[in-house]
Amino acid sequence: MQNQSNEEARDVLEIAEQYAGWRIDKVLAELLPEHSRANLQKWLKAEKILLNGKPAAAKYKVSTGQIINIVEIPEAHNNVDMPQDIAIDVVYDDADVIVVDKPVGMVMHPGTGNHDKTLLNALLYKFPELSKLPRAGIVHRLDKDTSGLLVVARSLVAHTDLVRQLQQRSMERIYETIVYGSMISGKTINLPIGRHATQRVKMAVMQNGRSATTHIRVIERYKQHTLLRIKLETGRTHQIRVHLSHIGYPIIGDHTYTKLRLPKGATSEVIQEFRNIGHQLLHAKSLQFTHPSTGELMSFNSELPQEMQKFKELLRAC
Hints:
Number of helices: 7
Radius of gyration: 21 Å
Structural class: alpha+beta
Low-confidence stretches: 1-10
CATH superfamily of the largest domain: Pseudouridine synthase
CATH topology of the largest domain: Pseudouridine synthase
CATH class of the largest domain: Alpha Beta
Strand content: 15-25%
Number of strands: 14
Helix content: 10-25%
Order of helices and strands: EHHEEEEHEHEEEEEEHHEEH
Largest sheet: 9 strands, mixed
Distance between the termini: 72 Å
CATH architecture of the largest domain: 2-Layer Sandwich
């Protein structure tokens, strides 16, 4: 089969740093979840998907900055990524970018056990043109039970630029969280993170993991807990949760990485509030990036969810 040039490709996708070292078929399955991995492998073999304009075996391991050229693959005909009329808080949008304040409990995109009612489904309903972009323009993620700000690309040019900003670590993402334990001072954690060896739904600090850097600042100390401000330099899966748990300050409500710890000497009201927590107290509070078209520095802030604000007041009174 004669290869088509990059200019003739239907879509052009740049390999982000987070996918470096992955097999190309796995990267494609991640970026194009509407297609089966078997079909993606078939299209690679048929040279309907190219890497840097050339054929690539499904097992080929990609590098940051390489270009995937989608020359000719059929449109997916399934209901996985259907638009759904779900209320979302859009705090800003223009021709290039969308900034969303995600609520606790909303999954980012369809996957095992969550086939619909995701942020991706909501975005496709409100902005139909996103169907032409990988992951409906989503370039970074928040865990299901993490609330707060994230940016979505509205064009392929914006998508490429925002991914570049993430790779170059120029996009600023700041979180606030309440943890078990009284932390004396801030610190920076440089510990690699990888998939847990036996509990595959978890991540863990491990020597052969991917580099991860988390900057921690103490905002407010309570008797047995601390309010922290976190700045991410990298964006590994569960990074904040894993790093804080590893150094002995797990996030309140994070049932994946810690057990419930009831505060000593607390009133029955406070103890009941701790028992009622159904998710980690982690919020993406501020977001800053360079606008892909204008070059303007864009800054956004989000108020803490009511539940986290209530917890702050509760801990102050303890």
